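Encode chain A's predicted structure.
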Amino acid sequence: MLNLEIGSSKVVDGKTCILTRSGAGGHAVYGPYVQLQPGHYVVEFSLAAAEQTASDDDDVCATVDIAADFGRLIFAREEITVSRLRTGPLRITVAFHTNEPHTFEFRVGVSGHLPLLIEEYCPVIPINANAEYAALLDASHFPDVTVLPKPAIFLEQVADFRRLYENGATIRIVADDVVVTIDGVSFFVRISDDLRFIDEIFFRSTYNFSLARECCVIDIGMNIGLVAMTFARKNEVKEVHSFEPFQGTYRRACANLSLNPEIAGKIIASNFGLADHDEETTVYIHDTSDSGAFSIRGSEVGTPEPISVRDAATVLRPIIENARSAGRDIIAKVDCEGSEFPIFETLEASGLIHQISAFMVEWHRSMDGNTQADLLAPLLRHGFLIFDLTGKTGNGFFYAVRSGAGAA
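Encoded structure for chain A:
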């Protein structure tokens, strides 16, 4: 956060900075009040002289520190003299460790000897106690937009990538690809639609859950695999079964899994969709649609694509039975562009719906007139507690947890 009483906000190459005034002293940058667990860390501050002055080289023009408890605890501190800023912008790395969890600030104080341009965002990375962290910091830097070539998607969406970076993501350019890492999950961003999923999954935590027991996750509508990987990162999740009928989207999911070998072994990905029947068919994919809007019903026009569809009850029965025999709860995430309605019908008809402990469902208003009531009714009959977040328009969303009351 910026202290606008001693300077003004300024955006430089997409970076939010404060331009301080001569004679104005105090904390120019403070916050972000981030919770860190016990461990060793390094923080990087970036600042530059906004203009050269006649100040003495030994004058202290800024102080950086790592603070907690609203400044009452100081974990590290370094003074910056005018001489260090004579040759251009300065990056200052400060290592520290904490034995207890705290809410931390990474602060830059200024003396007012000369105006400074200070970046608001300070990268913080965990390190080993004896780590050589220069390479780690280099790898964590936001890619330099002035150095070409860069993938087109990066140049088109640089502001969105910068926002992700300043919210803790790592952005890397690998050959012709942009690789984003958030919360230990890495994935390729190849089209603008990929960015649409990130906020929902990683920042609004739409599919986040906690469980004290082992569980199996059924992921109907894998898309490019982001949700499946967040599931697989959880210790309590021992297996994830994902289903994606569209070949291009499925290949992209597999490419993302290849970036995460430590969790990919938990994910069993199948290149077919689920419904209430078996079918080999060809559908049209509208040329302007993104991967998140593909439906096994297809479009009236577009590019033809062959797909496979399988009866959900037939496919899921052995998965559910094997997981339950291992003492695992079953969690189902469903986002499949209208196929949720026949899937729920076949799961109830086959006696499987009450074998599932919880559902996370994005449902889609269909031309057939189906609504969430058609999905909620069988859940209510089997004793589920439902949290319906559906709005008045657009797609809907609900969570359902089997409470046991009235369960078959």
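The chain is about 20% helix and 35% strand.
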